[in-house]
Amino acid sequence: MSAAALIPLTNTTALQLPCSSTTVTRRKPSVSIRNSLVIETAEDQASAETPRESVARRLILLRHAKSSWENRSLRDHDRPLSKSGRADAVKLSQKLEQLGWIPELILSSDAQRTRETLKIMQEQVRGFLEAEVHFISSFYSIAAMDGQTAEHLQQAICKYSRDEILTIMCMGHNRGWEEAASMFSGASIELKTCNAALLEATGKSWEEIKNCPLNSSITWFYHDIFWFGKGHVRRFHKVSTS
């Protein structure tokens, strides 16, 4: 078992918009019916026999915006964003909205600088506010461990996602986020503060993408230039505020 598998995905907080839940109870018939037949329509049969189709699933790997070092007494975990970091978070949220990359699920480190980055993005773009959010404490610590982040992110995605969710954003720190982006894309990727790697793969489920072999030749994009590499991600962009 790898080191990443030993780090529990605990201490999470789920933030969701309030929603109502309705339970429908079907009453049993008041009379008994013998030799009853269950008639299955052609539509029901076709639905049961039709396999789930592969669809494009998108992953945003976002490094937090620039943090402040003014208060040296603060723990690293508690450092807030700097003035320029707050401005960058505004720009990035607008860029992602323009590109149409709005997540339905957000998995984030619980560090102050990632929380603040997300809060600003939610204030700027309603789509980020409507997403389901989980703060995962292990995202902060795993990023400092060599070669462990990619597998840990895959585990978290499979744990918290559902197959109907098509866009997920993971927010965290270097060096782990750079390593994960590089491993997933097959390229050497540098993520500065408030940079986001946008990755896209096709699969019937997130679990299928996680288990996809990494030895098939694919075409992917990097800064709008065509490159050729190896991996299960078929498209790659890097988004920055500059």
TrEMBL record:
<dbReference type="Pfam" id="PF00300">
    <property type="entry name" value="His_Phos_1"/>
</dbReference>
<feature type="binding site">
    <location>
        <position position="113"/>
    </location>
    <ligand>
        <name>substrate</name>
    </ligand>
</feature>
<dbReference type="InterPro" id="IPR029033">
    <property type="entry name" value="His_PPase_superfam"/>
</dbReference>
<dbReference type="InterPro" id="IPR013078">
    <property type="entry name" value="His_Pase_superF_clade-1"/>
</dbReference>
<protein>
    <recommendedName>
        <fullName>Phosphoglycerate mutase family protein</fullName>
    </recommendedName>
</protein>
